[in-house]
Every structure is written in structure tokens, then in C-alpha cells.
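> forwarded from #structure-qc
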């Protein structure tokens, strides 16, 4: 029974994928979208069932299907593991995934490749479920590569646009760089432990088995490189903002519930290995803090509504990595969950705005939408308050835990993370004010067609806004259900903060910081009525930020262009030379053959002469050698 349910959980999205690939074009769009959504909903319901069961029994569920490979001292089983971590991930992957699918039925209804879009979405969820549920690193790698492939297909979904195609290729290539690190890490771990099974590796660590710590550090470093690629950390973060080239539901799915959380999942899953390599942990914390700050700086001046949200994702992921690096895995998971709620709501809300404005994404051409898009505005406001870290919204609790941990472990990182949080409050309210307040700045035609989105779009927004509001309740200070729930995952006992005067002081600083950010945004964009200048008039440091510190240009200069130059050299000179040499050999052989053919004239006397000549030559050679 359990095995069948586990298989249905995994395969339901794949069945939805097959349906839309083979039958999607033959049935009407409503049925295509309904089947795609139902497939994910089935996985969600089964995940919920197992989650309730685990809460009662406290026993993880393991399903081993077959022995995948068997070597002398090494074997891999194809199986699934449903424990606290994987079930938590499954709930928000399939739950938010269902809402995004539902939203997409209306949002993508006019698209000519509607069925293909749902097929890709279903396949994306299938691979994400595989990644999360696998019982060993090899199955995780299958899901890891699968979501990379699907992100390429979905980001470049509107492939007629070359810019979108380039964004898809960029995401694909940058992820492959990280994947190479991940793969090397898997090889090293396989060599160290003779297994890739999580439970076997964890048991070896707990038993105190002798481990070469240098190789283990190399392995965790390689795994972290893989996480940098999937979860968009310095230096592999530039693909994620470009990923918004895909349809908005794709942005919501990638940024909130699936792909970018994979790196955090992997490190949390292997926490017992990272605990043994404190230097790598320190590096993770530093990279996370720097990523959160750099991305926050860039988000300050962006004018594309989705670009602001994209950089805010990179910044929030940086905070999660900061928590991971400080060994606070459960706090990183907490922020993953709350972030999934409010970021999905924000992206889908931006999609609702873009839908109402006929694909307008520049906030300079928006304004005044709160009057005509009340549901979108209210849900967007709730999620903006959540990401800004104001109580009692969910983001306050998870972000405050990260800041508090940083304060206790490393004051410099705490200052960096606090600055990033203040900037988050500023740029998110800047976005809110420019989009929903003051007067509408778009065209008269756009103004005439302004309207609230249909129920299939607003319903997911409402659900997500409720979760963004109350989601923090799963881990309140001094009363954390989440910490107790995740405790069996960790080998090293976790230290939890208590509500004392210092904790209240840190909370106060965080809230005041957020209010300062919101206040500056209010003065600039409501009181003064500022609107960002046209691109051509942006100067100074703002121009540097607007151009994202020119990181893409630097990558172009030191990596892309040299590769193109080498490729051009190979294509224009080396390849023709090699081709000429190979073809020359062929022509020479052909010429010898043609000449040789002339002596095949049928004269027996001539053949005998050649035969005697040959034998004489051999005898003469043997005589000379001796």
C-alpha cells in the first residue's frame, strides 16, 4: 500500500506530463490545464497523508524498489526516503505547485502552446519530487539534472524571442558549471564511504568511522559549488534574474518553490557532513552574506517589476545560505518555507499586474493600480510586509532568527545581513508605491483596460497571502514546532535562542531598520512623488547598480569573449587545417589506389614477375639482416 502511494506521489506529475505531450493538443485547453493541475494536486494530497502519518509515528518511510548497481564494495539502491525533511519540502513543492498550475490555466490561456507549457510544468515538478524523495545522492542527481533541463525549457518557452533563448542557455550553462562540482563531490563521497545512501553515510559519521578529513572538505566544497549553481549564489547567481524571461508562473515556480531551494535542501540533507568541515561552513556563511548584500544593492534601482523580485530572491537565498553556514539548518529551512509563501505570492501578483497592463513590466509606466486591482494589491501588500520583516508577518520570524544567529556567531555578518534586510524593506516598498499608489502613468489605452484578474488568478494569491501572513506560526520564539519536528535530522544538537532582553533588543533593531527602509521609500515615492528616471539619464553609482555592477559584462570580457575567440580560432583555422589534412590523406590513398588499379591488367606473366621480385626482395632482406 505504502509503496503504491509513494509511486503514485512520484509518478502523478509524470502522468500529467505524458497526457499533455500526447493528448494535450487534441483536447481543449481547460481539460489540458485541469489534468496538469490535478496531477500535482494528487501528489500534494499523498504528501499530506504521509506528513500526518509521520507526525504520529515519528518513523521515516523507506521504499527500496530494486538494486540499481552492484560493485565489489559499493552498491546503490533505487529507493525513496520520506522523512521530516523530504515531506516538508514535498508539501510546499506540490502545494504551491498546485496553486501555480491553477493560476497558469488563466494566465496562459491565450498561448498557442498551452499544452506544452503544462507538460513542462508537470515534468519540472516530477523531477523536483525525485530530487527531494531520493534515498541517495545518485537519485538526487537525477532530479537535480532534470530540474535544470526543465528550467531551460521553461525559461526559453517563448523561444521565438532570441533574448529569452539566450537567458535559457545562460541558465543551462551556469547550472552545468555548478553541476560539475556537485558530481565531483558525489564521486568523492562515494569513494570515502563506499555508499551514496544518506542513512549509510549518516550511520558511518555517527559511529565515528575513520574519514579522511581533507577529502571530506574537498567533497563538501564541491557540493557547495553545486549548491551555488542551483541556488544562485556568488559567483553563479546571474542566471536567476534572467530566468524571469520565462512566463511569470515559471518565475514563481523557480524562485519560490522548486529549483532555487535545491541547494539548501542538499546541504541540509547532508548536514552531518558539513558539520565536520567548519572551514567550508564559514565560506558558505560569507558567500551567503555577500550575495544577500550585492543582490539587495542591485534591486534598489531596478525598474522592471520582475527584476526587483528576482534580485530579492537572490538576496533572500543569500540569507538562507548565511544560516546554513552558521550551522542553523532548521532556520534556513524555516526561511525557505516562509519565502516560498510570500515570494510565490509576489511573483504571481506581478503577473496579475502584467496581465492587466498587457505585458507592461516597467514600473515607471504603472501607478494607481490599488483602486482597480484590490485583491492583487492587498495580497501584494501582505507579502511585501512579510518579506520586509515586519511582525506579525511570516518573514519577520524567519528573518529575525537568521539575524539573531548571525549576531551570536559573527557580528560582521550580522551587520551585512541587517543592511541587506533594511534595503529589502526599501526596494520592496519602492516597488509597491510605484506600482499601486499615486496616479497611473501608463498609456490611455492601458488605463482604459485596467481590471482585476479573474478568480483563477486571484484565488492562489489569496491562499498564498494567508500563508505569508500566518506561516511564521510554525516556528515562534520559545515555541517552535518546526525545530522539534526537524530535530531527528541533525547529528549535532541544535542551539536555540530564548526570548531574553538581548533577543528583544535585536528584534527591535530589525524592526526599526525595516521601518527606516519603508520610511525612506515613503518619503521618496509618496511624499516627493519621485519616479525613476529614463535609462539614458541614470548616472553615477545608480548607473553602476542599474547595470548590476557590470558583472555580466565582466563575465563576457573574461570568459565568454575569450571562449568565442578560441572557438573562432578553432573554427576558422584549426578545423579547416585538420579537415584539409584528413581529406588529403583520403585523396592520397585514393590516388595510390587508382594507380595501383592500373597494374591489375590480367597478365599472368606480369603477376609472376612481380611475385618473383617480391620473394627475391624478402630473401635479400633476410640475407642483409643476418
Amino acid at each position: 500500500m505504502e509503496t503504491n502511494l509513494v509511486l503514485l506521489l512520484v509518478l502523478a506529475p509524470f502522468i500529467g506530463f505524458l497526457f499533455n505531450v500526447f493528448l494535450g493538443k487534441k483536447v481543449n485547453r481547460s481539460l489540458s490545464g485541469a489534468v496538469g493541475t490535478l496531477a500535482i494536486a494528487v501528489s500534494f494530497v499523498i504528501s499530506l497523508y504521509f506528513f500526518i502519518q509521520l507526525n504520529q509515528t515519528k518513523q521515516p518511510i523507506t521504499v527500496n524498489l530494486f538494486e540499481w548497481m552492484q560493485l565489489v564494495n559499493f552498491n546503490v539502491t533505487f529507493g525513496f526516503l520520506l522523512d521530516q525533511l523530504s515531506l516538508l519540502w514535498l508539501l510546499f513543492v506540490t502545494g504551491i505547485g498546485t496553486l501555480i498550475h491553477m493560476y497558469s490555466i488563466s494566465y496562459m490561456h491565450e498561448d498557442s502552446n498551452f499544452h506544452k507549457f503544462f507538460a513542462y510544468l508537470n515534468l519540472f515538478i516530477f523531477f523536483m519530487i525525485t530530487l527531494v524523495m531520493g534515498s541517495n545522492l545518485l537519485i538526487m542527481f537525477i532530479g537535480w539534472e532534470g530540474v535544470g533541463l526543465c528550467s531551460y525549457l521553461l525559461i526559453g518557452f517563448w523561444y521565438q524571442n532570441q533574448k529569452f533563448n539566450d537567458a535559457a542557455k545562460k541558465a543551462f550553462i551556469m547550472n552545468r558549471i555548478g553541476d560539475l562540482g556537485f558530481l565531483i563531490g558525489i564521486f568523492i563521497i562515494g569513494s570515502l564511504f563506499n555508499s551514496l545512501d544518506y542513512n549509510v553515510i549518516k550511520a558511518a559519521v555517527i559511529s565515528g568511522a575513520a574519514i579522511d578529513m581533507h577529502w571530506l572538505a574537498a567533497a563538501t566544497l564541491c557540493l557547495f559549488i553545486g549548491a551555488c549553481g542551483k541556488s544562485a549564489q556568488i559567483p553563479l547567481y546571474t542566471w536567476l534574474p534572467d530566468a524571469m524571461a520565462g512566463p511569470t508562473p515559471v518565475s514563481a515556480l523557480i524562485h519560490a518553490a522548486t529549483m532555487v531551494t535545491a541547494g539548501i535542501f542538499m546541504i541540509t540533507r547532508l548536514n552531518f557532513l558539513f558539520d565536520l568541515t567548519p572551514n567550508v561552513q564559514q565560506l558558505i556563511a560569507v558567500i551567503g552574506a555577500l550575495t544577500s548584500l550585492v543582490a539587495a544593492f542591485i534591486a534598489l534601482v531596478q525598474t522592471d517589476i520582475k527584476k526587483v523580485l528576482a534580485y530579492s530572491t537572490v538576496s533572500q537565498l543569500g540569507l538562507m545560505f548565511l544560516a546554513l553556514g552558521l550551522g542553523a539548518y532548521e532556520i534556513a529551512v524555516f526561511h525557505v518555507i516562509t519565502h516560498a509563501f510570500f515570494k510565490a505570492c509576489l511573483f504571481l501578483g506581478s503577473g496579475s499586474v502584467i496581465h492587466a497592463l498587457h505585458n507592461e513590466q516597467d514600473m515607471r509606466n504603472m501607478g494607481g493600480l490599488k483602486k482597480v486591482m484590490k485583491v492583487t494589491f492587498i495580497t501584494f501588500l501582505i507579502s511585501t510586509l512579510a518579506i520586509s520583516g515586519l511582525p506579525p508577518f511570516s518573514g519577520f520570524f524567519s528573518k529575525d532568527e537568521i539575524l539573531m544567529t548571525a549576531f551570536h556567531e559573527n557580528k560582521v555578518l550580522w551587520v551585512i545581513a541587517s543592511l541587506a534586510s533594511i534595503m529589502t524593506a526599501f526596494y520592496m516598498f519602492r516597488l509597491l508605491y510605484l506600482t499601486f499608489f499615486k496616479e497611473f502613468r501608463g498609456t490611455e489605452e492601458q488605463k482604459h483596460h485596467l481590471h482585476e484578474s479573474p478568480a483563477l488568478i486571484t484565488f492562489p494569491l489569496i491562499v498564498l497571502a494567508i500563508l505569508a501572513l500566518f506561516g511564521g506560526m510554525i516556528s515562534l520564539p520559545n515555541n517552535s514546532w518546526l525545530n522539534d519536528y526537524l530535530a531527528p535530522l541533525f547529528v549535532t544538537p541544535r542551539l536555540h535562542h530564548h526570548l531574553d532582553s538581548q533577543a528583544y533588543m535585536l528584534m527591535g533593531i530589525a524592526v526599526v531598520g525595516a521601518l527606516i527602509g519603508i520610511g525612506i521609500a515613503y518619503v521618496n515615492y509618496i511624499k516627493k512623488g519621485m519616479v525613476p528616471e529614463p535609462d539614458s539619464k541614470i548616472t553615477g553609482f545608480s548607473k553602476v547598480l542599474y547595470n548590476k555592477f557590470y558583472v555580466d559584462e565582466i563575465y563576457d570580457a573574461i570568459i565568454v569573449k575569450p571562449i568565442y575567440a578560441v572557438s573562432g580560432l578553432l573554427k576558422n583555422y584549426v578545423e579547416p587545417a585538420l579537415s584539409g589534412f584528413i581529406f588529403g590523406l583520403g585523396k592520397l590513398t585514393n590516388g595510390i589506389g587508382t594507380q595501383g588499379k592500373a597494374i591489375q591488367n590480367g597478365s599472368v606473366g606480369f603477376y609472376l614477375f612481380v611475385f618473383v621480385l617480391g620473394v627475391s626482395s624478402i630473401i635479400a632482406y633476410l640475407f642483409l639482416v643476418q
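QC bot note: The first strand starts at residue 61 and ends at 70. The beta strands are 61-70, 75-82.
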